Amino acid sequence: MRRFNIHHLTTYTYSAPVRLGTHTLRLRPREGHDLRIESSTLSIRPAAKLRWHRDVEGNCLAMASFRDAADRLLIESQLIIQQYDRVPLDFVVDEEAVSYPFHYSSRDLPLLAAYLTETDPQPCPLLLHWMATVWQPGERIQSYTLLKRLNLAAHQRVSYRKRDEPGVQTSAATLQGGWGSCRDIAVLFMEAARCFGFAARFVSGYSFTALPPEQAGSTHAWAEVFLPGAGWKGFDPTHGVIVGDTHIPVAVARRPESVPPIAGTFGGASLLSMQVGVWITELQGVTTKLAP
After folding, report:
1. pLDDT in the model for residue 165
2. Which SUPFAM superfamilies match (predicted)?
3. Reduced DSSP (H G I as helix, E B as strand, rest coil) percent helix, strand, coil of the chain, to 5
4. Residue of 257, 76, 235, 276 whose CA lies nearest to 168
5. Cα 208 from Cα 217, distance rounded (Å)
6. Are the C-beta atoms of residues 252 and 59 closer than 8 Å to each other?
7. What are φ and ψ of residue 130, in 5° steps?
8. Is residue 225 a contact partner of residue 193, using CB atoms and an 8 Å limit?
């Protein structure tokens, strides 16, 4: 078991006091047998009324409602989590899904249908051409081996570049440019996996990494693929690795735009700046600063 302290600070500064609409916060990690929250503190200024619930994906959301106007909004999350996923390869795939291609069972298919549908019903030729370099019909291969190969291929094809602009690049733009943010690379992997017939979903969270600040994002994104018998298994194409105990998932979704860490509205003035900082410390270890 490893323990991490996660400090996530977001500050919005406005040109004058604004009316703050309801803000949706996705900052609390997804708990389970492999991840437990030891302590959690959420501080918001100006003061807000919080209502907690889970969305259709089972993500934990805090809805923050404000009464007072303000020219500055500060949202600060402090977490200590326990991560138990020390052996991410300790799983067994059902016999009928070991070899690729395979078909999901009639029992699972209704639940997985949304994760099998490509964002673009007609994948671009550039994506299909790249997929052909990963696997050719007729090749005998294990399902997990194909996904591992796809994960590494995306990592080798696309260079990571921090991108502050909102939204996600298309797979064609990522392949053509040869670079992308972690969310762009995750979507490329996810789209290719779906074209291969795997159920895939987007994951937003944190990653404890030794990369320097200029090469790491304030949060991190990767993908999960459903393998019968093994469940949802994480793949991080930005780093070309299998997701393990250095990844802390916060929210999952079919599409990346569905799970921003913070989303809300304001009115009455303009936004001057938004500053985000995330610092992850392995307790009794070293501190990795992911953003200024």
Report:
1. 79
2. Cysteine proteinases
3. 20, 40, 35
4. 257
5. 11
6. yes
7. -65, -40
8. yes
* Contact assessment for residue 254 and residue 269, using Cβ atoms and an 8 Å cutoff: no
Helix (H) or strand (E) holding 54: strand 48-54
d(CA 205, CA 32): 15
Tokens at 87, concatenated: 């052996």
What gap in Å lies between CA 197 and CA 29, rounded to an integer?
Answer: 28
Beta strands at 179-180 and 159-160: parallel, antiparallel or unpaired: parallel
The amino acid at residue 162 is K
User: Which domains can be identified in the chain, with CATH numbers?
Assistant: 2-84+259-289 (2.60.40.2250), 95-257 (3.10.620.30)
On the question of pLDDT at 211 being above 90, the answer is no
Look up residue 32 and give its DSSP letter. B
Who contacts 38 (Cβ-Cβ below 8 Å, separation ≥6)? 3, 80, 81, 82
Answer whether 37's CB lies under 8 Å from 28's CB.
yes
Distance from the first to the final alpha carbon of the chain: 28
Question: Which tokens sit at 161?
Answer: 């570049």
Structure tokens at 283: 């307790």
Average pLDDT on 99-110 reads 96
Give, in degrees to the nearest 5, the angle at Cα 263 between 190 and 57. 45
Residue 239 to residue 210: CA distance in whole angstroms: 12
Note the pTM of the prediction, 2 decimals.
Answer: 0.91
